[in-house]
Structure formats: structure tokens, C-alpha cells
Amino acid sequence: MKLLHQSPFLRPLLFLVLGIIIQFHWDISFPVVLPVFLLSIVFILLSYLPQLNKQYNFRFLFGLGFSMLLVASGIFLTKITWEKSEWRVDPATYLYEGQVLEEPVLKPKTYLCKVRIAAAEEAVCQQAVDKQVVIYIPIDSLSLRIVAGETLSFYARLEQSPPYLQKQSFAATGFIRKNNWSLEPEKKQSFSIRLQALSVRRDLLVRLQEIIPDHSSYAVAAALMFGYRNEIDKDLQQAFINIGAAHILAISGSHFSILFGMLYFMLSFIGNSRKGKLIKQFILFPLIWGFAFLTGFSPSVIRAALMLSIWGIGDAFFYKSFSLNTVAIAAFFMLLFNPLYLFDVGFQLSFLAVASIILFNPYLVRLYKSRNPMIQYTWELCCVSVSAQIGVLPVSIYYFHQIPVIFLATNICLIPLSAILLFLIPVSLLFHALLGAFPLILFPLNKALAFFISITRALDQIPYGNIYSVEPGVWGMTALFLSIVLISLILFKKRVVYVYLLLIFGLFQVIYYLC
Predict the structure, then answer these.
(1) What is the C-alpha to C-alpha distance for residues 324 and 351, in angstroms, rounded to an integer?
(2) Which residues of 344-370 are buried (b: 16+ CB within 10 A; e: fewer)?
(3) What predicted TM-score, i.e. pTM, was given to this entire model?
(4) What are the residues facing 114 on neighbouring strands?
């Protein structure tokens, strides 16, 4: 209750999530949602009547009405969003035309392309237009030219997409045979900020490849700076996963925090008065969203940029804004925009990691203090890593079926290096644009990337660095999450009642697995 009181946006988020889950599992029809929606409006209006507003017995009306409104909104928005991915696909072959939404992803024998259908044959046109589909195109000289924003014409026999793709709003999938498709460069492309962002990123990636000749180094730099992971070979990508460093390659809160911290430090000469803080945020706000633009506006990028923006606004007006409330606000508005983000693994892991850091890190940091700055920095980095791991462990085990044992060593070694690289990459690109390709200027970046990759491979070679084939299931994930919550309450609140609850819960666990 105290947590809900300190984070007022957490309660609305929970009711919105409840509505999304209800709709996802039970598919509530509009005639059922409409009375709930209308009743919630009635309760809210009644709470403002003077004869009821002043009476203590009726104070629940607004809260009840607002909660019902959020649940109904979650159901309604989820139903509308899910219908975009519903399509009773005709199994025959038809001609379609669509725009490529993202950069194609290289597979062993094909390119995976995400396409929004703009036109189709008359027989399926009404059902197909505006649907998003995933198509696989054989690798050849023509498919190498496909980029985000291009218009494709293709003959295909599409099939209904599996559930995991439907959660991403993709309605169908299909394999396109060679010579059954063509590029349509003369077709006018619809304007999209995201497609413009991907176009700018594509140009910067070309420049990045010019200054980093080694393919593995270029692939890592592209992932770190621009969130482009299509060039990373499978072995190196698996090495990052094995050592618990996959989050370093995905643009997320850690990247934004590093860049924001560097920029904030560079602007420290402005001062910390109210005017100074306002000037800082006025400079930082467009830079943060400019970086989000260059990385293609993925959900994790939007979340990180949104949270930093909320923090910046609070900092400018001297509010303590980096809290669970900040996380809840960012999650709330993202779910309003697209309720199916709730089922995205990256969305779940990123929000759980940040929330866990906010909850646990202050307690862990207080356990030890050192006068040595390096020791204190290492300790604080360890605390952040452990805090994040506590929050993401149940979900991470559920999805990936493995536990990275050496995650602490990974974060201690790679996070400081990633911060150095996030500084060197844009500086090297700037120097290259102004002065040309001078090897002496580009030497630090290339050596730092090679060192970064070598440490990753060395950590991956550590015996027993990962526990594999862990499959807890939904109940096991829930049980682990509840156990973490109860153990945390015992350590931080130091109340006997939580010990009793943990023992009772453990007893139920034993009975469940024995029976």
C-alpha cells in the first residue's frame, strides 16, 4: 500500500494491464465492454455531485469508476490492436503490393522482410490492405537491394502467422519464390518518421563501415551505437547471450543513461540553479530524442527516451522524478499506444530491470562504502547488476531457459568498455567526416572494439559460466518471482510475518511438486 501511495501512477498502470490480460485470454466482446465503460463514467460523474462528494461513505465512487474505466480501456484498446493481426487468410496465391517497414534480416537462405500491405488483388483487397505480414525472399543480387521504405510487388500464398508474431501485430507469413517478386522504385513511398530515421541510420552505417574495416568490430559498433544487429554473426551473438550481455547489444536504458550522463557532465559548467537546469534540459531533450531517431524508434528506445525525458522535466523543476512513478508513467503511455507491447520480451525485461534497480539498489549500495573511488564505483556497478538481475531472473529463465552465472563479471568488464565505445564511435565518425580517414585517429576505436570482442569471447570460454536447460514453466516463474519478493521483504523490512509467509509458500511448493 505504501508503494502505491508513493507511486500514484502505479495503480492506473496495474488496472490497464489487468484489462489487457483479460482481453488477451478471454476475448471480451464490445457489447460486454460498453456497459462497463458507461457505468464507470456514471460512477465518476456521481462522485462530483455536491451531496455525495462531501460524504465519507461515497468516497470510493471516483476510484471505482476510474479503475473500471482503465480496465475497460485496456480491453477495448487490446481488442482493436489485436484485430489488426487477425486475418482469415485465403490459401490461394495472390498479387500483393506493400512497403518494407524495417531493414531486412539475413537468414541462412533468405531475407526476412516485414511489410505493410498497401494493395492487393480484388478478391482479397478488402481483408489485406493495411495488414502487416512477414515474408521470406531468397537471397540473390536483387534482394540485396531491399531496404526499409521500399515498395515490393509479390505473388504469394500467405498463411496465418503464429501467435508470437500476432502479438507483434503481424497477421500473416509467406515464402516468396524467386522471380515472383519485384522492386517498385517508381511507387511513391508513404511518409513515416521511423522510415526516415532508418534511412538516416543507413547512411551513418555506411560511414561507420568505412572507418571500421573488421567485420565483427563493425557489427558490434553498429549494434552498440545504432541498434543494428543484423550483421553480428551467430557465434558472437550466442557468446553475448551465454555471458548475460545480450542487453548491451540492444539499445536500451543503459545506453541512454551512459550518453545522458556524459552529456550532463559536459554541461555541468551551466550550474544547478533552476535556470541552469532548465537550460540543460532544453539542450539535452532534443539530443536524447535525436539519438532515439537515429536508432529507429524501437519500443526499448522509446521507453528509455521517455523515461529520461520525464526524469529531465522533474530534474528541471527540482522534483525527485526517477522513481517507480517514472517507470509507471512510461509504461502506461506506451501501453495506451500499443497494448501488445505488454507481451514483448524486451518490454518486460527492460521495465522489470529498471523497477528492480529502483527498489533494490538503494538498499544494496548502503551495505558498503569505500573512500577509494574505483572500489566504490565497482561496488555500485555490482549493486546495479545484482539489482537488475533480481528483477529479470524469473522472466529471463522462462523465455531463455538458462541462467548466466558470470553476469557480475560480464557487467564489470563490458559496461565500462561499452561506455568508452559510445564515446569513441560518434567522435570517430565526426573526425572522419571533418578530417578524412586518418589511421591514427581511428586507431583507439578499432583497438577498443577488438578488445571488447576478445573479452566477450574469453568470458564465454569460462567453464560452467551458464546453467542451461532450465524450464520452469509459468508456475515455476511465478513461484520464483513470489519467492524473491518474500525474501526481499524479509531482508529489508525485517518482519517475522514474511518469514512465516515464505515457509508456508515453501510448504505449498513441496506439496505441489511431490503430488
Answers:
(1) 10
(2) beebbbbbbbbbbbbbbbeebbeeeee
(3) 0.84
(4) 134
